[in-house]
Amino acid sequence: MADHYEVLGLDRQASADDIKKAYRRLARELHPDVNPSADAAERFKQVTHAYDVLSDPQQRQQYDLGGSGGFGGASGFGGFGDIFETFFGGGQSQRGPRSRRERGQDALLRVEVDLDEIIFGTTRQLEVDTAVLCETCQGSCCAPGTSTQTCDICRGSGQIQRTVRSLLGNVLTSSPCGTCRGYGTVIPNPCPTCAGQGRVRARRTIPIDIPAGVDTGVRIQLPGQGEVGPAGGPNGDLYLEIKVKTHETFSRNGDDLLATVEVQMADAILGTTVTLPSLDGDVSIELKPGTQSAEIITVKERGITRLRGSGRGDLKIGVQVITPVRLNSKETALIEQFAASRRPVPPQFSTFQQGLFSKLRDRFLNL
């Protein structure tokens, strides 16, 4: 790459005013509006870049230090130079510049599912707003037909070395180059689509499998489904946090489903067979004669598929016997006749229960 002073036709002792005058003269000569040739356009870019570096005092100082061969012989300590480089940061330059390609960040999304969807599992098409690879530059960060160029300041090392005086003499320190930010290269012509990032924001659809048996709070990892990294780096991971919606009829206790069924007093006394709609089809239950409130009827293998293991939980149905109200005279007479035929049993105290649902809850949990 041409020396910046040579590009502007100056020597290294040129003043800031000399640099400005040389740039103006060459710009008038090479500007595309004046000179449309391809060679003039390329020289105009070099002149502009040279002026940008030399007109900034800090960048010019860094360039002059790099252009003179750095500080390779400045310390005067011979073999001790390597030791000082190791302790004061100079050794970083030996590792080379850092890569523009980095791994993308992980993402966490919360997904709501219905209770019936987790019995056997389900598949969703999930739309996410994330970073995807730029189709224009394919992650190169450069405009089509162009590429990165070696940084003039650090000569591609990504590091700037400086001499620091200490009690032991002059030692070398190293820090990331401020011009290329430690990459060792610059992008003269960034991609117009992604502004030199190698990635853009976009919405994409991801098919996801939600396994059977998941519960609220479970997290599912989808490797490589997170956002793409800078400069087309590898994708991060996507994590899905599950929330199971509350159902108006059924609740969950581990892998079991819980529900209650209301039956009339006559059905509880005489017994009957009832067909009820469950989350995965109708289920038939048998009420034996003399069924009491808060009894539990268990239907095997009609609960939720186990997340780990095989088989399903059970469907447990609590019975609530409804006592009729507002009887007509004929119904009242029949009940009185029925009561008279039974041996009188006086009311008795029993263990205190806070309502049917508390009673059902205790029985559900103690099964």
Task: Please give a quick description of this structure.
This protein is of the alpha+beta class and 367 residues long.
Task: Report on this structure.
There is one protein chain. The strands form six sheets. Strands 10-11-15-14 form a four-stranded mixed β-sheet. It has a three-stranded mixed β-sheet with strand order 1-9-8, with no helix packed on it. A two-stranded antiparallel sheet has the order 2-7. It has three domains: 1-55, Helix Hairpins (Orthogonal Bundle); 107-140 and 192-244, Sandwich (HSP40/DNAj peptide-binding domain); 251-366, HSP40/DNAj peptide-binding domain (Sandwich). The protein is α+β, with helices and mostly antiparallel strands. The protein has nine helices and 15 strands.
Annotate the secondary structure layout:
Elements: H1 4-8, H2 16-30, H3 38-54, H4 57-67, H5 80-88, E1 107-113, H6 117-120, E2 122-133, E3 149-150, E4 159-166, E5 169-176, E6 185-186, E7 199-210, E8 219-222, E9 238-244, E10 251-253, E11 256-264, H7 265-270, E12 272-278, E13 281-287, E14 296-299, E15 315-322, H8 329-341, H9 355-366
